[in-house]
Amino acid sequence: MANKKLGDTRKGDALLVPVVAVLLGFAVGSVVVMITGKSPLVMFNAMLQGLTGLNVARGSFNPRYIGELVIQALPIILTALCFGFAARTGLFNIGAEGQLMVGSLAATTVALLVRAPAFIHIPLVLGAGMVAGALWGAIPGYLKARFNVHEVVVTIMLNYVALHMNNLMILNVFGSVDRVKTAQFPQSALLKDPWLESITNGSRLNWGFVPVLIAIVVYWFVIEKTTFGYGLRAVGYNKDAAKYAGMKVNRNIVLSMMIAGAFAGLAGAVITTGTFSFGRALSAAEGYGFDGMAVALVGSNQAVGILLAGLLFGMLKAAGPLMQSNGIPKEIGGIIQASIVLFVAMKYGLERLISVLRLRRDKASALPVTGEEAGV
Amino acid sequence: MNLGMILEMFPIALMFGAPIVMAALGGLFSERSGVTNIALEGIMMIGAFAGASVTVVLEPITAMAPWLGLLTGVAAGMLFSLLHAFTSIHLKADQIISGTALNILAGGLTIYLCQILFHQQRTRAFSYGLRKVTVPLLSKIPIVGPMLFYEMYPTFYVAIALVVVTWFVVFKTPFGLRLRSCGEHPQAAASMGINVYSMRYAGVIASGALAGLAGATMVLTQDIQYTVTSIHGTGFIALASLVFGKWNPWGVLGAGMFFGFSQTLSYYAKDIKILASLPLEVFYALPYVLTIAALVVFAGKSVGPKANGEIYDQGKR
Question: What CATH architecture does domain A13-351 belong to?
Answer without folding.
Answer: Orthogonal Bundle (1.10)
